[in-house]
Amino acid sequence: MDRFDPIRELDRFAQALRRETLRGMPMDLYREENRYVLSVDLPGVDPGSVDIDVDGQLLTIRAERTLHGGEGVQWLNREREGGSFLRQLSLGREIDTANITAHYDNGVLNVVIPVSEKARPRRIEVQSGSAAGAGAESGSRQVEADAGSGSGNRQVEAATA
Q1: Each residue of 36-73: pLDDT tens digit?
Q2: Is there a contact between 63 and 85 (Cβ–Cβ < 8 Å)?
Q3: Cα 147–Cα 33–Cα 62 angle in degrees, nearest 5
Q4: 148: closest CA among 56, 36, 58?
Q5: Could you tell me where the Low complexity compositional bias lies (predicted)?
Q6: Is the separation of the CB atoms in 59 and 50 below 8 Å?
Q7: Contacts of 153 (CB under 8 A, 6+ apart)
């Protein structure tokens, strides 16, 4: 019967995590003006094997890497992973899913995810006086609304009437 060795178990757990990280698709995601840009490293993947789909608010990327070497090959070292890869991202409601585009170049898949028109920051003119209703002061001001962020940041600018 083996004795429980917590150090060995921790080491085994860390190695398993490293293997999972290697199997995954490393990615960067950033926002640039009115779009998100997702860059996924997929070296050695045939662009024809890459499949991207959107189902509701779920973006799924699938890819296949085929490693060469068949019968009669004696591997001396094999660190590159082959097989199927899958990555899923939950998209917010402020995404324009109909206009997502993708481009694969030099082993990097770039997916451009536009922010929907109704989620973009916009200016709303606030009217007062006879244009807005009886008994109000004359003049107007503009309010900048950030519909998509939910951050609650508002900016008010007074305009001369």
Answers
A1: 999 999 998 999 999 999 999 999 999 998 887 778 88
A2: yes
A3: 95
A4: 36
A5: 128-140
A6: no
A7: 146
- Token pair in block for residue 117: 């028109």
Task: Give the position of tokens 């991202």.
Answer: 89
Contact indicator for 62, 105 with CB cutoff of 8 Å: no
Task: Look up residue 76 and give its two tokens.
Answer: 């001396």
Catalogue all structural domains in the chain, each as residue range(s) with its CATH number. 26-67+75-117 (2.60.40.790), 121-159 (no CATH)
CA distance 85 to 135: 65
Assess contact for 100 and 113: CB atoms under 8 A.
Answer: yes
Give CA–CA dist 48/106, Å, rounded. Answer: 14
